[in-house]
């Protein structure tokens, strides 16, 4: 089996359906998320190429495989880039397990944001879908240990069209299927496992199954609001388990604090 293409020569003359960008080296093994997603898309009939550890300051680095027909898929890699680069005491790590020879400095801080910016510059109008550990963990308001402040969703910081959280294999194939059929990327918002940013003119979802989270402004002003946001995120990440707890009359875990965390 050939490796997924990484150059135009390897890709051939026809444009690829999907170009995946990763902060890791490309290792064709299922423990590398970008390789697993790439092979899964390929198994469903899509042509896929990988750009591994590109120069994040140069849009040309994102043109090495040409303009993708359907979308760019962007991931920071198998680890959150800040965890990958720094220790818990905020010191630079001496090696990177996901880079050739353990070389450090091969990816930027918060690579999802930097890669999305350059992909936009490389090919305007191509949908950008972000995913992986970094995007999944930062899909809602979250406390950033490195800056010691609450940051907003990665979908807002990166300005991507869609954020796929969790494993994502079924989600990414459904996105590819809809875009291939000619649907705009905005018609992928109802796919399970997807986050998207609503514009001022967008109609927000309604219904009994819609849960409104505390806003970013509320989370920054009130620790209890941020606490509730975190609790809702974890509960709704596994609604089947929550339904089981309720059905079996087991108390659903919750957080109670008498004083705000400062």
CATH superfamily annotation of the largest domain? Cobalamin-binding domain
Which strands sit side by side, in order, in the main sheet?
2-1-3-4-7-8
In total, the number of domains comes to 2
Estimated structural class: alpha/beta
Total helices: the number is 10
Report the CATH C-level class of the largest domain: Alpha Beta
What is the element string, with H for helices and E for strands? HEHEEHHEHEEHEHEHHH
Radius of gyration: 19 Å
Largest sheet: 6 strands, mixed
Kindly report the CATH topology of the largest domain.
Rossmann fold
Principal-axis shape: globular
Number of strands: 8
Approximately how much helix is present in the residues?
A: 25-40%
Kindly report the average pLDDT value. Answer: 88
Percent in strands: 5-15%
What are the segments in which pLDDT stays under 50 over at least 5 consecutive residues? 249-262
**Level-2 CATH architecture of the largest domain:** 3-Layer(aba) Sandwich
Which features does this protein show?
262 residues, alpha/beta, Rossmann fold, 2 domains, 6-stranded mixed beta sheet, two-stranded antiparallel sheet, disordered C terminus
Provide a descriptive summary of the structure in words.
With 262 residues, this protein is of the alpha/beta class. It has helices at residues 8-11, 33-43, 81-85, 111-122, 133-137, 154-158, 169-180, 216-221, 223-237, 239-247, and strands at 18-22, 48-52, 71-75, 128-131, 142-144, 149-151, 162-164, 194-195. It has two domains: 8-195, Cobalamin-binding domain (Rossmann fold), CATH 3.40.50.280; 207-262, no CATH class. The chain has a six-stranded mixed beta sheet, with helices on both faces. Strands 5-6 form a two-stranded antiparallel ribbon. Strand 5 and strand 6 form a beta hairpin. Helix 2 crosses helix 7 (169-180). Mean pLDDT is 88; it is low at 249-262.
């Amino acid at each position: 089996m050939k490796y997924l293409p990484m150059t135009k020569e390897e890709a051939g003359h026809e444009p690829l359906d999907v170009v995946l960008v990763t902060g890791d080296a490309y290792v064709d093994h299922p423990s590398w998320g970008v390789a697993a997603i790439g092979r899964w898309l390929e198994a469903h009939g899509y042509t896929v190429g990988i750009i591994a550890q590109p120069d994040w300051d140069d849009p040309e680095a994102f043109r090495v495989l040409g303009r993708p027909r359907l979308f760019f898929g962007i991931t920071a890699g198998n680890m959150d880039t800040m965890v990958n680069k720094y220790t818990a005491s905020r010191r630079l790590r001496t090696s990177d397990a996901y880079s050739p020879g353990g070389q450090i400095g091969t990816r930027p801080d918060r690579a999802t944001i930097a890669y999305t910016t350059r992909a936009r510059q490389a090919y305007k109008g191509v949908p950008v879908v972000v995913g992986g550990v970094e995007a999944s963990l930062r899909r809602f308001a979250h406390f950033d240990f490195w800056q010691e402040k609450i940051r907003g969703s990665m979908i807002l910081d990166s300005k991507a069209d869609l954020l796929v959280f969790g494993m994502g294999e079924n989600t990414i194939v459904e996105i590819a299927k809809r875009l291939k059929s000619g649907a705009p990327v905005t018609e992928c918002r109802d796919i399970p496992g997807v986050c998207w940013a609503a514009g001022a003119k967008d109609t927000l979802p309604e219904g009994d199954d819609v849960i409104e989270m505390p806003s970013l402004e509320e989370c920054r002003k009130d620790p209890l609001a941020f606490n509730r946001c975190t609790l809702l995120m974890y509960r709704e990440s596994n609604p089947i388990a929550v339904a089981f707890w309720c059905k079996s009359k087991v108390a659903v875990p919750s957080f109670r604090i008498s004083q705000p965390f400062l």
